[in-house]
């Protein structure tokens, strides 16, 4: 299947984590490449990342949590029943995602955080993706997302709403 505009680029397989605190809030992190985007859509996002070829999504989501937020102290609560995908906007095609993908095909998980806030460490990676994090209400997610990812965040807020309570 080719992308809009005839690019012919494939989707990148990816996993994402909606990490719920014991109080029902969700971990969001600020992209290090957008440090001045405090309130801007796209400046804050959920942990997510690419899957290795043949990697089980349930294994990948814990690896990504460890890499991006410094801890995998979590338990899977649910898996979104479908792969969710997005296409990059035309201005990012050929630039974002190494220029090799039209967008991402994502498997999302709801997880319960089992650690303490001090276990969340953004400083362990020499080139961190995030420079700040906070707990947010699930219903805030769509407003935090960059426009082309907003439908995915809306779907996650609907599908995982039952976990947004203490």
Automatic annotation (TrEMBL):
Task: Pinpoint the Nudix hydrolase domain residues.
Answer: 10-158
Cofactor needs: Mn(2+); a divalent metal cation; Mg(2+)
Q: State if Transport is listed as a keyword.
A: no
Q: Enzyme class, one word?
A: hydrolase
Key words of the record = Hydrolase
Name the residue ranges of motif: Nudix box.
49-70
The source's superkingdom equals Bacteria
Q: Does the keyword Cell division apply?
A: no
For this protein, what is the EC number? Answer: 3.6.1.-
Q: Which family does it belong to?
A: Belongs to the Nudix hydrolase family. RppH subfamily.
NCBIfam families registered for this protein in UniProt? PRK00714.1-5 (NF001938)
Q: So what does this one do? A: Accelerates the degradation of transcripts by removing pyrophosphate from the 5'-end of triphosphorylated RNA, leading to a more labile monophosphorylated state that can stimulate subsequent ribonuclease cleavage.
**Name used for this protein in its record:** RNA pyrophosphohydrolase
Record organism: Craurococcus roseus
Record lineage: Bacteria, Pseudomonadati, Pseudomonadota, Alphaproteobacteria, Acetobacterales
Designated gene of the protein: rppH
């Amino acid at each position: 299947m080719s992308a809009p505009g005839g690019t012919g680029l494939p989707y990148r397989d990816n996993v994402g984590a909606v990490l719920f605190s014991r109080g029902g809030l969700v971990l969001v992190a600020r992209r290090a490449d957008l440090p001045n985007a405090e309130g801007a859509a796209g400046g804050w996002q959920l942990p997510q990342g690419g899957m290795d070829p043949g990697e089980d999504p349930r294994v990948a989501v814990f690896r990504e949590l460890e890499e991006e937020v410094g801890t995998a102290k979590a338990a899977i609560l649910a898996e979104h029943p479908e792969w969710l995908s997005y296409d990059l906007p035309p201005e990012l095609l050929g630039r974002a995602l190494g220029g090799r993908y039209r967008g991402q095909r994502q498997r999302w998980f709801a997880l319960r955080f089992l650690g303490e806030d001090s276990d969340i460490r953004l400083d362990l990676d020499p080139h961190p993706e995030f420079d700040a994090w906070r707990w947010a209400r699930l219903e805030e997610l769509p407003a935090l997302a960059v426009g082309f990812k907003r439908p995915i965040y809306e779907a996650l807020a609907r599908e995982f709403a039952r976990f947004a309570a203490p």
